[in-house]
Amino acid sequence: MRQPIRAVATAAVAILIFSACSSGATPSPSGGGASPSGVSTPVSAPASAPASTSAFDPQSITGTVVLSGWQSTGAEGDALNATLDSFKTAYPNITLDYQPIATDYPTAMAAKFSSGEPPDLFYVDSSVAPDWIDQGVLQELDTTAAARGFDTSQFYPGYLDAFKGPDGKTYGYPKDGNTLGMAYNTDMLTAAGIQPPTNWTELAAAAAKLTTGNQKAFCLSHTLDRALAFIYQNGGSLFSDDKKTNTVDSPETAEAIKTYLGFFQNGQAARPADLGDDWCGKALGEKKVAMIFEGGWLDPFMTSSFPDTKYAWAEMPMGKEKATLGFTVSYSIGADSANKDPAWVLLTYLTGPDGMKKWTEGGIANPSRKDVAPAAGKEVLVQSADFAKPWSFIPGFSKVSDAFNNAMTTQIEAKSDDPAPVVSATSSAIDTALGQ
Amino acid sequence: MAAVTVGTSSGRSAGRGIRGERRAEMLTGLAFVFIPLLLYVFLYFGAMVYAAYISLWRWGLRGPRAFLGVHNYEQVFGDPIFWKAVTNTLYYVAVWVPLTMALGLFLAVIVNQGLRGQTFFRAAFYFPTLASSAAITVVWIFLLQPDGLFNSARAVAGLNPIFQALGYTDNFNWLGSSRTAMNAIILLNAWTTSGTVMLFYLTFLQQISRDIYEAAAIDGAGAWQTFRRITFPLLRPAHFFVATLLVIGGFKLFDQAIIAGGRGGEPSNSLTTIVLFIYRSAITDSEFGYAAAVGVVLFAIIFTLTLAQRRIFGEAPSW
After folding, report:
1. Secondary structure of A224-250 in HEC code, one letter for each residue
2. Burial of B301 (C-beta count, 10 Å sphere; 0-12/13-18/19+)
3. Residue from B9, B32, B270, B284 whose CB has the most chain A CBs within 10 Å, to mutate
4. Looking at chain A, which residue has its C-alpha nearest residue B64?
5. Does A16 contact chain B (CB < 8 Å)?
6. Alpha-carbon distance A12 to B34, whole Å?
7. How many CB atoms lie within 10 A of CB A106?
8. Which residue from A189, B5, B34, B241 lies 20 to 30 Å from A273 (Cα-Cα)?
């Protein structure tokens, strides 16, 4: 009895040792042979990119394309599925495999990039675009666009520029776009007898009139993705135009931050968390505040959660100049994608005039192209793209925005309007990020 | 192992030496543990070694980009956010571990009194441990909202003057203020973990002989004296066991922090823990080499502290 067991066990050991040896080679790091890849690795242009523009016929492309992104709401999923259906009708030779990602998107994508098997076409948020471009995981598109005659001039520059790398090349086309506008409670402004403020002077006057009892004039986020609009309006900035120089330490930036902090200091503004809300949209819906600065994502939320709160959109009040922030998401092709040609066809359909019209006509998203008309009621937010600056900077920018946000929290909690600590914290974070 | 060897060798025929016999036995034993061992070596030990290797590189989404040597470590030690994460984590461990141990011991001693409904209380105290940390953190966030149950309850209870004297407004945002956010998480985790700690202590409590308590009672010892002089010292192995587990767990604080404070550990990095910092470096910044370096540093911290704990509580007890 014992003997056979031992024989089997010994054989098992032998087999396992062998398989362990062979599999042992696989997980071991690429070691000395690992040439640092990433940006230095040249991304090959699509293999079949023809030399002449006229030769390209998207209908001739066959194959499968895996599309990934996230879905915020069911309505968004419906609109996308309708758009994808029209693509399938227009391009029957291409098999579309839509794989939405339900978990944390950057985490899931990091795993896919690391394994070298990204989806062929996928969403890239403007805020992570510089990091992903720097990591070399996105396919450069300009070469193909030139060869195949895809016109990018109709995209609002405030959106398209978010996906340009330090080499000046484009790594994604905006699938839609949003700007910050001012959403205001029409009843409250009427009760106070005022029109929506159009500049900073009127804004300060309106703030004073609209702060009564428990009602605050604004819900303001302390974060850079809101406050930066005011910094731009005052002529301030974070970087030089080539994003190589730190320009945050300027009187214009400091003055804008001081004004912003002042609204908290004098009790006219509160952070959403201080109002018991997770974001300012909810505070507007609950009629705790008269004005907020948000984007088109507010509309579906208000319709579903607060249909009784009357509100309207106005352009951001202008400071020394008109400015707002542009938030956008691109469709980009994976550098390691094996199906770049069908991915290109899908990309240019979705970001082209027909696909984008289909995608945005229900009002679920705002077009990022000038030749696609906005849905009714979306005019203010769409047209603000003319003076929007992209929410997209340099690799490692999240540390800059963390530094700004944390310094703002400290100042707001201390009820101070001194911009100096915010400027210096942001400035040193920018220096660190630029130095990398 | 030894018993098995003796048993088998006794019945063997002569001709093969005891040595060969032992070897064969060892091979059989190894064969049985081989698969778990292999998994351990590759998934745990292998991953650790690989992380140490990665930490020497600038390592991005598509693998190694440049060899840096110890540069990542220099960066880590020069990064103020890293030190903020270390301070936060040390503070968390320093407050949470004793608090949870005290609470767990308190519950265990009470439940061990042989009260009626002991099973019910044991289950009730253990219950929060069963809830998923994500769900219970969200519940906690709701409770601590400015217009949440906690603020309403203290208003109803008439406690607001006391809170005002301490500098907390009536609709204070407990998780949104850098002064209180970490303490709120400490309370949450002390509550949810104390059930487990109670169970550990209960096991050890029930091993203490009744005779000792009887002798103490005959000598006229009061309840506090009995606890102070008998129960507490005799639980020394339990203290070591629980403290080690909690310290290691405390250094790995992550889920409650990211749910309440987001990736940024808001407000003002007050909820940025070492593990959240690792996550942020890897996932948000795509700097896997840097993240691995922080991981190695965290390993060194936990390893050192566990050794120190063994010193404090003596050798690992043989339970």
Report:
1. HHHHHHHHHHCCCCCECCCCCCECCCC
2. middle
3. B284
4. A36
5. yes
6. 9
7. 17
8. A189
Centroid of chain to Cα A175: 11
Residue A366 is classified by DSSP as -
Strands (E) across A128-195 are located at 173-179, 181-185
ipTM exceeding the 0.95 mark: no
Print pLDDT tens along chain A (436 aa): 444 444 444 444 444 333 333 333 333 333 333 333 333 333 344 444 444 445 688 888 899 999 999 988 788 889 999 999 999 999 999 999 999 998 889 889 999 998 899 999 999 999 999 999 999 999 999 999 999 999 999 999 999 999 999 999 999 999 999 999 999 999 999 999 999 999 999 999 999 999 998 899 999 999 999 999 999 999 999 999 989 999 999 999 999 999 999 999 999 999 988 887 889 999 999 999 999 999 988 998 899 899 999 999 999 999 999 999 999 999 999 999 999 999 999 999 999 999 999 999 888 889 999 999 988 888 899 999 999 999 999 998 988 998 999 899 999 989 999 999 999 999 999 998 998 5
State the Cα–Cα distance between residues A120 and A68, nearest whole angstrom.
Answer: 8
With b for 16 or more beta-carbon neighbours within 10 A and e for fewer, the A312-321 pattern comes to: ebbbbbbbee
Residues 6+ apart with CB under 8 A from A241: none
Determine if residue A243 is left, alpha or beta; phi over 0 gives left, psi from -120 to 50 gives alpha, anything else beta.
left
Q: Is A52 left (phi over 0), alpha (psi -120 to 50) or beta?
A: beta
> Residue B303 CB: number of other CB atoms within 10 A?
11
Query: A195 touching B, CB under 8 A?
Result: no
Burial profile B95-126: b = 16 or more Cβ within 10 angstroms, e = fewer: bbbebbbebbbebbbebbeeeeeeeeebeebb
Structure tokens at B185: 């998480």
The pairing of strands B57-60 and B63-67 is antiparallel
- Number of other CB atoms surrounding residue A23 within 10 Å: 12
Residue with tokens 């505040």: A289
Please state, in angstroms and as integers, the Cα–Cα distance from residue A348 to each residue in A144, A173, B26, following that order: 11, 8, 65
**Strand, helix or coil at A217?**
strand
Residues 6+ apart with CB under 8 A from A305: A282, A285
Q: Which residue among A38, A134, A274 places its CB closest to the CB of B146? A: A274
* Cβ B139 vs Cβ B188: under 8 Å: no
Residues in chain B within 8 Å Cβ distance of A29 = 50, 53-54, 64
Angstroms from A115 CA to nearest CA on chain B: 8
Structure tokens belonging to residue B247: 């310290």
Dist. CA B310–CA B244, nearest whole Å: 9
A208 interfaces chain B, CB cutoff of 8 Å: no
User: Contacts of residue B276 in chain A, CB cutoff 8 Å?
Assistant: none
Residue B296 one-letter amino acid: V
Residues of chain B found within 8 Å of residue A410, distances taken between Cβ atoms? 178, 268
Query: Which of A250, A391, A258, A422 lies closest to A323 in space, CA to CA?
Result: A391
Residues 6+ apart with CB under 8 A from B132: none
